[in-house]
Amino acid sequence: MAAGIFKVPLPANEPIYDYAPGTPQRQALKDAIKALYGQQQDIPMVIGGKEVRTGKTVDIYPPHNLHVKVGQYHQGGAEHVKAAIEAAQHAKKEWAATPWHERIAIFLRAAELLAGPYRYRMNAATMIGQSKNPFQAEIDSACELIDFFRFNAHFAQRIYEEQPYSPRGTWNRNEYRPLDGFVLAVTPFNFTSIAGNLPSAPAMMGNTVVWKPSNKQIYSAIVIMELLQKAGLPDGVINLVYAPGPVVGDVVFRHPDFAGLHFTGSTTVFQHMWQTIGDNIAMYKAYPRIVGETGGKDFIVVHESADPDEVITAIIRGAFEYQGQKCSAASRAFIPKGFWNRIKDKLRHEMGQLKMGPPEDFSNFINAVIDRASYDKLVGYIEQLKQNPNTEIFVGGGYDDSTGYFIEPTIAIVDSPYYVTMCEELFGPILSVYLYDDDKYEDILPIVDEATPYGLTGAVMAHDRKAIMLAHKYLEGTAGNFYVNDKPTGAVVGQQPFGGSRASGTNDKAGSALNLQRWISTRTIKENFNPPKDWRYPFLSEE
Ligand code: NAD
Predict the structure, then answer these.
(1) Rounded Cα distance, 280 and 395, in Å
(2) How far is C-alpha 404 from the chain's CA centre?
(3) How many CB atoms lie within 10 A of CB 217?
(4) The domain spanning residue 460 has which CATH number?
(5) Per-residue pLDDT tens for 281-320?
(6) 324 and 413 in one domain?
């Protein structure tokens, strides 16, 4: 029993290293990259705290360097998913009974380890395995994951502090228990921080977890697991399995103790999972919590009062950082024709400055897209844009897979706000631009709103306050994260809680108390210090 009411240290965002030439951080990161390239990682699953190797191995190649094997992972099957559930169930009682501040301390220690000794290895693994440049890796796999740990610790405390009113003679208390059963975390390839946060957030609140990462992120997932174990996470609290998604779903969604899904990935996969859970609803002991952050078709709307340089910067950073493989990446832009004529030459020039190549060459802004399937899909869209007489590739349009999956950052001008590349999530470095008549700003806003089923991020670029107010009005439900005069990417934990609605997810805002609240089940206790001794109410008495 704790002899004190403890307070989590106040969180602050982890400072971002810039890796500028001559800095010791740059050298340390280069050394870590070199060390990883010099090893062949043999990556096991981790179930009940034990490394599990099946011998059924899958080789790992960096997306930007298809001729250099960096390791292999051991693929699991249904029996490993079952073992992971058993391990989670076995660990649950003790973990749930561990005082909240003791649980939280493990994640605060993980944050400290990641800020220090694990930083370079985590960033190097993300750069090699997911093809991110040093800055993109730093803001993701180091800073954002550290922020998730520290801020969630703080939000957890605030949840535990929140207690109901107690009138005189009674004491009302809320006890924030974990969910009944185990949680499944299914994570995407594109953010190491999300991969770390999805299993950790429910675990902080006392749940035990089966974690299925994307098979394109396993190279850094194992570093997260090692970090958590090093920080003192007990065996079985988070169990890492590499079985194919449908196999995981098949076992987990039929289990009576399945208590919640923490998912980030594409809309179709999430909808399929939700449907399966719905079909199986009578099997479960409790109603599972379903949290999913999914796809987007994120926009930049430019008003003629905007600043040209601010627009060019928002476009380049918002659409092309990490090759457009952010759920929040701008992939459609609406620009007045006159304004376009003012920026197009400079935009083309600046786009020409973006160097593309492997991330270990720090001068590259653009690296490879994640895999063959993504490359082929993007090439298909580029060819479609090239062949359509009504669309124009303004810049880019090249691709090359001789050494890695390289797609040139591409801007296309399309003739309709409903053209296929204006509506579908491509998840790559392709921005479609629709040029609207200069006096049609107010007409274009409702089209931005209803042209896609998504509702994730978007930005308005305008200096005219009335134009900003109109955007607020028409685009109220179009983006869960809405930016004014800023790119639509780069949400920071503790500053812009992240998530979208409509087809983009359940909008439970990762990195906020709103998300943590989905992983608890509250018991309310009323204690009466002065219980009544007579059942009769006064109104029953005779006049
Ligand atoms: P994905 O949907 O292909 O995969 C996500 C996860 O689901 C992976 O672990 C994958 O193995 C698993 N999976 C796939 N099919 C499955 C099935 N049938 N059953 C169970 N699991 C299955 O997504 P991805 O390519 O890894 O990531 C990109 C997508 O994620 C994009 O659509 C992007 O917009 C979205 N995303 C959204 C957010 C957000 O916060 N809204 C953040 C990051 C990524």
Answers:
(1) 49
(2) 25
(3) 23
(4) 3.40.309.10
(5) 999 999 999 999 999 999 999 999 999 999 999 999 999 9
(6) yes
For residues 185 and 209, is the Cβ–Cβ distance under 8 A? yes
Report the alpha-carbon distance of residue 541 to residue 543 in Å, rounded.
Answer: 7
In 3D space, the residue among 157, 175, 174 whose CA is nearest the CA of residue 166 turns out to be 174
**Taking a C-beta distance cutoff of 8 angstroms, is the pair 26, 362 a contact?**
yes
CATH number at residue 236: 3.40.605.10
Ligand 1 pocket check for 359: Cβ under 6 Å? no
Calculate mean pLDDT across residues 460-486.
98
Mean pLDDT, residues 76-103: 98
Same domain membership, residue 513 and residue 471:
no
130-138: average pLDDT: 98
* Residue 11 domain flag: no
Which stretch of DSSP H or E encloses residue 79?
Answer: helix 78-97
Residue 491 CB-half CA count within 13 A:
29
List, for residues 34-76, the tens digit of each pLDDT value: 999 999 999 999 999 999 999 999 999 999 999 999 999 999 9
Does the structure show a pLDDT above 90 at 2? Answer: no
In 315-446 the beta strands, taken as DSSP E runs, fall at 330-336, 392-395, 399-400, 406-407, 410-414, 430-436
- Same structural domain for residues 288 and 339? no
Q: What percent of the chain stands above pLDDT 70? A: 100
- Please give the residue range of the domain that contains residue 420: 298-484
- CB atoms under 10 Å from CB of 191, counted, come to 28
On whether residue 108 sits in a domain, the answer given is yes
Domain identity same for 57 and 203? yes
Number of domains making up the chain: 2
DSSP type of residue 366: B
Q: Looking at the structure, do residues 281 and 412 belong to the same domain, yes or no?
A: no
- Averaged confidence pLDDT in the chain: 98
Q: Is the CB of 212 under 6 A from ligand 1?
A: yes
Would you please indicate which residues are annotated as catalytic (active-site) residues?
Answer: 293, 327
Q: Are residues 184 and 209 in the same domain?
A: yes
Q: Which two tokens stand for residue 106?
A: 């493990």
The answer to whether 163 and 14 are in contact (CB under 8 A) is: no
The reply to whether 71 falls in a domain is: yes
Residue 419 has pLDDT above 70, yes or no: yes
Ligand 1 pocket check for 54: Cβ under 6 Å: no
Say yes or no: 244 and 316 in one domain.
no
Q: Are residues 474 and 341 in the same domain?
A: yes
Mutation test residue for ligand 1: of 141, 148, 214, 326, the one with most atoms within 8 Å of CB: 214
**Ligand 1 pocket: which of 266, 298, 456 to mutate (most atoms within 8 A of CB):** 266
The arithmetic mean of pLDDT across residues 382-394, rounded, is 98
pLDDT at residue 1 tops 80: no
User: What whole-number distance in Å separates Cα of residue 78 and Cα of residue 174?
Assistant: 38
Q: Looking at residue 216, what DSSP letter applies?
A: T
Residue 433 predicted with pLDDT over 70: yes
Whether 413 is covered by a domain: the verdict is yes
